[in-house]
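@channel sequence for tomorrow's demo:
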Amino acid sequence: MLRFVLLTASLILTAFVAPPERAEAHALEPGYLEITAVTPESYRVFWRKPDVKGRPMAIDVILPENCDLLRGPQALNDGRAWVARWIATCAGGLAGGTVVVEGLERQRTDVLLRYAVAAGQALSSRMTPENTAVSLARDPGAWDVLGSYVPLGIEHILEGADHLLFVFALLLLISNRWRLLGAITAFTLAHSFTMAAATLGWVSLPGPPVEAIIALSIMFVASELVLRKGGQHRLSERYPWSVSFSFGLLHGFGFAGALQEIGLPQSDVPLALLSFNLGVELGQLMFVAVVLVTGFILSLIWPPIKRHLEPGALVALVGAYAIGGWSAYWFLDRLSGF
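structure tokens (generated this afternoon):
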């Protein structure tokens, strides 16, 4: 029954998901704003706007009214995005002030804000088209760290189509609920370990090969879906935790790369790391829940579809080849970008 539910959901996802337009499996590159305290009343501002067809995206940072420069100088192209740097003097400091990204409400991307109060004290927030303003805290506390990094973890996993597609293919492959639980647990433990180790600098792998191998991991699971037969369990079905754990280690390096770009508050590294990982797990559970509920509802709407979704059936093969084809595109495109 579980296999039927999951295979039914696969039809919807593979039929209506558009092919990727870029090598990356994540959303449009976000803007980035970094505000670093130089003195109690002066701040170094770094502002990077995404490039849109050779021109800067129509968004601008507006600092609090107590600053002498509410806006920065004209942004210059650095070959990838549009960058501006300036020093702002803000009477009384920025604590309690509000930073706004004007025009973000008309865009389809986010802006990552990193506010460094002092050495070892930094807070990261994500500004979205629905929330274009951020109030700057005086001294980021534990709740500020949790409130910032948990949502960042959720958004990262939900925007990471490659990570989600691997989990989705894994769900399709495993019909036994206990083996499925073991596989998801192994995947979680593995990527949590490598994400922490890479973020803390204990281990390091170059990003491009990791991203290519992540795509390759999806291709492997898709091939297992194609080769399986009714009544016969492949090794990956009998011992799915070994597959999910092995590839989970690689996916953890992908999560670590995103977290390193965001940055960690040096005074709360363990809490920030835990919060981001918690957000990743929550986002993953949300995705799994949506897949299961969607498949269950579809099974109630059209029960006869079950016989068309058994291993080896044409519809099941089409879904497996769609997953494999998408991941193959990512793999080749990422490989060419080395």
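heads up for whoever presents: Residues 145 and 268 are 8 Å apart (CA to CA).
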